[in-house]
Amino acid sequence: MKATDVRAKTSDELKADLEGLKKEQFNLRFQRATGQLENTARVRQVRRDIARIQTVLREKRVSDNA
After folding, report:
1. CA triplet 7, 12, 22: central angle to 5 degrees?
2. CB environment 16-36: b (16+ within 10 A), e (fewer)
3. Which of 9, 20, 33, 54 is the least buried, fewest Cβ under 10 Å from its Cβ?
4. Burial class of residue 63 in the structure, from the number of CB atoms within 10 Å of its CB (0-12 exposed, 13-18 middle, 19+ buried)
């Protein structure tokens, strides 16, 4: 997920994506703990996507208040 793609979405879409990514992160943590995780790089990718979405949401909030 690229930052330009994230910025093109509305706040509601971003919140829905964020919720889905957090659920995926939860599942990945369980898979890692039980030794079932095959794609270990996905953990890092999901974590960064979450951070990217949170950053853009904050930017939108700040620009709306300014």
Report:
1. 85
2. ebbeebeebbeebeebeeeee
3. 33
4. exposed
Cα–Cα–Cα angle for 38, 41, 43, nearest 5°?
Answer: 90
pTM score, whole prediction: 0.91
- Per the CB < 8 A criterion, the answer to whether 50 and 21 are in contact is yes
Q: What is the residue type of 42?
A: R
Instruction: Give residue-wise pLDDT tens across range 21-41.
Output: 999 999 999 999 999 999 999
